[in-house]
């Protein structure tokens, strides 16, 4: 973008993570004119590139929440997308272990899962669990056979390519600074990496800026500040495990063990990693601690007493944008359209934390349905 350009489009999507790219693809495929603006030089380098890469089955979320409604269909859509687009992925069954009083929660999760369409969960007693994973110490476990793993970078690349093929214009290294909202067209100020400025005029603005979504919403003149929720940054650090682990399943304990980083997952190449832990930070901070926190080692040992902690090393960190802060359950996603805030042609996606990667295609379908639906004044989008 050279000089102070004036650009026009039907739909502007801000944010080129998995969610923004999936939205751009979905809308461009439906024939809409779409421009996507991404602040980084490469797509998917923020939260979409700093996570567990787990394809969640969809049973962990409160009934009726957006997460519960979109995770399961998103999981199915993602498996199909990966198969169609050559994105490395696989089934990776997951165990939720529990001890003592925690065991009762497993039955409740099974019921919650069934309500969300996850009907393949199985409760395992101590004997059945020991047969499956002899090194795992717990009284019982819930088995989720339809959990999976995806190569997140390959997924982002496939969404980027598909969006471009569908006709979307993707602009990396360009930051949406803010803008002005009006009844018929919005105006967004864009700054490119070389400092040049441009004005992008659009009929629909879709704010899929992840950690940047709330600041961007606040920088839109004409947007009621009361409709920007406080977004908390839940940082999560991973620990890589050198050498193999004696487990074939993902192991995801709940509660304080999970919070301390005691979950086990594998990347698409089979490399074992533990975490993420959860700590709240004021800003984007991906720096690693010098050592693996002792609380994380204790959390892993609570179900794997045989852990050799000298094999662990801090690996990378990511940050989940959340609508709730410390000591509270993660809360639900917010997809705030005109029906919520009263501004036509504007959708904010706030707090898109886990399982946002799993559900990116379902989230895109949800957003596209509102954009493409006939508007109250009879004008098609
Ligand atoms: C530690 C951790 C573990 C997780 N594990 C899983 C998991 O196993 N499975 C799962 O399904 N989900 C998981 N998640 C959640 C998942 O990663 C996110 O929900 C998902 O990646 C969100 O995608 P997004 O496109 O909304 O956000 P992002 O990927 O962050 O994309 C937003 C983009 O907007 C850009 N941007 C911001 N502000 C501006 C601006 N003003 N102008 C232009 N561009 C801007 C950013 O550069 C960024 O690229 C995890 C997250 C974390 C942090």
Structural description of this entry:
- With 381 residues, the chain is of the alpha/beta class.
- It folds into two domains: 165 residues, FAD/NAD(P)-binding domain; 150 residues, 2-Layer Sandwich (D-Amino Acid Oxidase, Chain A, domain 2), CATH 3.30.9.10.
- It is 27% helix and 28% strand.
- The protein contains ten helices and 21 strands.
- The strands form four sheets. Strands 1, 2, 9, 10, 11, 12, 13, 20 and 21 form a nine-stranded mixed beta sheet that branches.
- The chain is elongated, with a radius of gyration of 21 Å.
- Bound molecules: flavin-adenine dinucleotide.
Short description:
With 381 residues, this protein is an alpha/beta fold. Helix content is 27%, strand content 28%. The protein has 10 helices and 21 strands.
CATH C-level of the largest domain: Alpha Beta
Bound compounds: flavin-adenine dinucleotide
Q: What is the CATH topology assignment of the largest domain?
A: FAD/NAD(P)-binding domain
CA radius of gyration: 21 Å
Number of domain modules: 2
Low-confidence stretches: 377-381
Overall CATH architecture of the largest domain: 3-Layer(bba) Sandwich
* Biggest sheet character: 9 strands, mixed
Mean pLDDT, all residues: 95
Strands, helices and their partners?
Blueprint: E1 5-14, H1 18-29, E2 34-37, E3 54-55, H2 66-85, E4 89-91, E5 94-98, H3 103-115, E6 122-125, H4 126-132, E7 140-144, E8 148-150, H5 152-165, E9 169-171, E10 174-180, E11 186-192, E12 197-207, H6 213-218, E13 220-221, E14 232-241, E15 250-251, H7 255-259, E16 264-266, E17 272-274, E18 279-281, H8 294-301, E19 312-322, E20 334-336, H9 338-341, E21 346-350, H10 360-372
Parallel strand pairs: 1-2, 1-12, 2-9, 5-15, 10-13, 12-21
Antiparallel strand pairs: 3-8, 4-8, 5-7, 6-7, 10-11, 11-12, 14-17, 14-18, 14-19, 16-17, 20-21
Helix pairs in contact: 1-5, 1-10, 2-10
This protein binds flavin-adenine dinucleotide.
């Amino acid at each position: 973008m050279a000089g102070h350009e004036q650009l026009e489009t039907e739909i502007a999507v801000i944010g080129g993570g998995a969610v923004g790219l999936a939205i751009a693809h979905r809308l461009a495929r439906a024939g809409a004119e779409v421009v996507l603006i991404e602040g980084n030089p490469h797509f998917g380098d923020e939260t979409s590139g700093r996570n567990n890469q787990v394809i969640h089955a969809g049973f962990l979320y409160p009934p009726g929440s957006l997460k519960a409604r979109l995770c399961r269909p998103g999981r199915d859509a993602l498996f199909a997308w990966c198969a169609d687009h050559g994105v490395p992925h696989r089934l990776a069954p997951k165990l939720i272990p529990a001890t003592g009083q925690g065991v009762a929660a497993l039955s409740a999760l099974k019921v919650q899962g069934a309500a969300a369409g996850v009907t393949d969960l199985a409760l395992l007693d101590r004997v059945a669990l020991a047969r499956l994973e002899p090194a795992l110490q717990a009284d019982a476990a819930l088995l989720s056979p339809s959990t999976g793993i995806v190569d997140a970078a390959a997924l982002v690349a496939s969404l980027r390519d598909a969006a471009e093929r569908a006709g979307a214009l993707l602009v990396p290294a360009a930051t949406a600074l803010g803008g002005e909202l009006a009844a018929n067209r919005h105006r967004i100020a864009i700054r490119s990496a070389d400092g040049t400025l441009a004005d992008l005029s659009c009929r629909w603005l879709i704010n899929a800026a992840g950690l940047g979504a709330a600041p961007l919403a606040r920088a839109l003149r004409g947007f009621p500040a009361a409709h920007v929720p406080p977004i908390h940054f839940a940082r999560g650090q991973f620990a890589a495990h050198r050498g193999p682990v004696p487990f074939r399943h993902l192991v995801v304990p709940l509660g304080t063990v999970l919070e301390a980083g005691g979950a086990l997952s594998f990347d698409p190449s089979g490399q074992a990693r533990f975490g993420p832990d959860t700590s709240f930070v004021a800003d984007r901070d991906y720096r690693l601690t010098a050592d693996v926190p002792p609380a994380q080692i204790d959390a892993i040992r609570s179900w794997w007493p045989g852990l050799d902690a000298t094999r662990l090393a801090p690996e990378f960190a990511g940050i989940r944008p959340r609508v709730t802060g410390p000591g509270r359950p993660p809360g639900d996603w917010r997809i705030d359209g005109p029906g919520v805030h009263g501004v036509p042609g504007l959708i904010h996606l706030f707090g898109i934390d886990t399982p946002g990667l799993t559900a990116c295609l379902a989230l895109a379908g949800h957003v596209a349905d509102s954009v493409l639906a006939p508007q109250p004044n009879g004008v098609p989008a």
